[in-house]
Amino acid sequence: MDHRLKRWRSFAGALLLLTLLVVVVGTAQADPYPQSTLHPKGDFARMVDELFRTTLLWATIVFVLVEGALLFVIFKFRGKPDDPEPKQVHGNTMVEVIWTAIPALVLAMIAVPTVRTIFRTYDIPKGAEVLQVEVIGHQWWWEFRYPQLGLTTANELHVPVGRTVALKMITQDVLHSFWIPQLAAKRDVFPNRSTTLWFKAEEPGDYPGQCAEFCGIQHGRMAFQVIAQAPDEFDVYVGRMQATAVPVAAPATPVSDSTVARKTAAAATPLTTSTLAATVSVDADTMAGSQLFMMKGCIGCHSLNATKPMGIGPNLAGIGRRLYIAAGWLENTDANLAKWIQHPQTVKHGVLMPDLGVTDAEAQSLVAYLRQH
Ligand code: CUA
């Protein structure tokens, strides 16, 4: 009796633990898991989620019925010591027809919505109201171009809420995979042909994305952010990015055509302290930073002008306001930006950016300068 009681207690304990686990997992909210696909915030992600739920529903029904029948048979027909030999049978056509027909029916219930969803995801939205974005994968960062707006940026994709965004994707080097769990599904990106993806964000927010195809040593640090904004905020963003066509720190007053011309001329010739001072009033650190940006060769790879997609490195227009640096790897704080500028090969080994021997003071100036952009 004692022995049976012990076994019953351990069984009840295990059952309680399992119930608690189910409750904890079941009540988990979206926020602690921003890369979860289970809380879609876009039409594309919602379609995929619905398909998942349909499949899960059928799988649950099958599981409960099959395991229920199994348990029933095990207990109901279990052997007892003085039972006679059971009746021996071989095959039963009716049973075989039933257990072939039912799975076929279940598969059809899953296959039809699956195929329908696949076709819907490949039905690329068209029209002037669709925001076109070109996505270019690089080891290990993402480039985004807005052909309709004439803008280029990197690692942070701003989109307006409620407007469909159509992505045309390609890579400069190896295979990558573009994935925004909450807004759209995952799609591979190839070097020799373009693939497409589209989504419409339903509410404002920051949605993390991630490369989902192993692409080299820093694959895990090839992340990006999608910033979904109210349409008027998005327009402000676009205006600010277009204003980066004007070199050096943006002035506080609206830029007139003549100022733009003056600054463009100033940028074409090597910048000296006097030309800079004549163009805009900036503090000494920022001014030193702008010179270092050229002298150290940063300018060779990075453009600070969102309207010019030049440079082999990420376009840095708007870098001062981005949430992350180094493709989603570090929060965009002054300390992290300085560390990244000084020791790229330590922070993210294998990237194209070399260690340039930037001193602490120089890094501080470069950070001050980049914060103006
Ligand atoms: Cu790019 Cu993994």
Mind explaining what this structure looks like?
The chain is α+β, with helices and mostly antiparallel strands and 373 residues long. It is built from 11 helices and 12 strands. The chain has helices at 2-26, 43-76, 93-121, 231-242, 257-268, 273-279, 284-295, 298-301, 334-342, 344-347, 360-370; strands spanning 131-138, 141-146, 151-154, 156-160, 165-171, 176-179, 186-189, 195-199, 205-211, 223-229, 324-325, 330-331. The strands form 3 sheets. A 5-stranded mixed β-sheet has the order 3-2-1-5-8. Strands 4-10-9-6-7 form a 5-stranded mixed β-sheet. A hairpin with a 6-residue loop joins strand 6 (176-179) and strand 7. The longest helix has 34 residues, at 43-76. Bound molecules: dinuclear copper ion.
Whole-number mean pLDDT? 84
- Total helices: the number is 11
Distance between the termini: 78 Å
Which of globular, elongated, flat, extended, rod-shaped describes the shape? elongated
Biggest sheet details: 5 strands, mixed
Bound molecules: dinuclear copper ion
Share of β-strand residues = 15-25%
Number of strands: 12
As a whole number of angstroms, the C-alpha radius of gyration is 29 Å
The portion of residues assigned to helices is 40-55%
Strand ordering within the main sheet: 3-2-1-5-8
Reading the helices and strands in chain order gives HHHEEEEEEEEEEHHHHHEEHHH
Low-confidence stretches: 249-280
Structural class based on helices, strands and sheet pairing? alpha+beta
